[in-house]
């Protein structure tokens, strides 16, 4: 991977921001000294300072010294942040990457500069282990900048480029989706306890089974129904269990939950 030669400012360095920073360094894309991490209370970043990252509580100063600006704050906090950054933004130099849910590229340009290059990225919490599913989109940024953002987030997982009008949907399926799959694993482990396993064993069995199911699809490049057919025999126990779950709304409840999350995700910024 070709190393980036500029400076990166990650504004609001919580779990996503610090995980991205670690991924960029681990992959060799950037050195720690090229990355500034900001947070209101920089005491929480002391371990990163020890690793060679620059840390700061001064967002405008961090942005003024950077080429790439990654906005990792909540949608509700974004407008106040953008007001402080507007005086130091240089549209000719800065590329802005936003991970704020429900905030369009146009929303950000309206606060900073019409000429600014803005790309949105929606990772999920599996970024902490380099297994994020990140969706990337823009409305008018150059293809080279979209590819640059994709390369950055490929250091912490898989990336799919999508149309910007699908970014709220991506939030529901990928970011909220982590919680949905975790709840399904938790439910499976509780079922395991009910049929006789100790809780810790049931959880380990459910987790590894879920991981195996996901890897089957990824590595075999197959469809879920293909793999389901391999496990369901006539009058068998698997199809009996599946049909009981479907009769109780398993698939439809998951679909409805994803749809509702997409609606809520689209309202986060508007309700500020």
Automatic annotation (TrEMBL):
EC number: 1.5.1.2
Pfam families, per the entry: F420_oxidored, P5CR_dimer
Catalytic activity: L-proline + NADP(+) = (S)-1-pyrroline-5-carboxylate + NADPH + 2 H(+); L-proline + NAD(+) = (S)-1-pyrroline-5-carboxylate + NADH + 2 H(+)
Molecular functions (GO terms): pyrroline-5-carboxylate reductase activity
Every Pyrroline-5-carboxylate reductase catalytic N-terminal domain range: 7-102
InterPro entries to which the protein is assigned, alphabetical: 6-PGluconate_DH-like_C_sf, NAD(P)-bd_dom_sf, P5C_Rdtase_cat_N, P5CR_dimer, Pyrroline-COOH_reductase
Residues of the Pyrroline-5-carboxylate reductase dimerisation domain: 164-268
HAMAP family: P5C_reductase
Family statement drawn from the similarity comment of this UniProt entry: Belongs to the pyrroline-5-carboxylate reductase family.
Protein's UniProt name: Pyrroline-5-carboxylate reductase
Originating species: Pedobacter quisquiliarum
Gene name of the encoded protein: proC
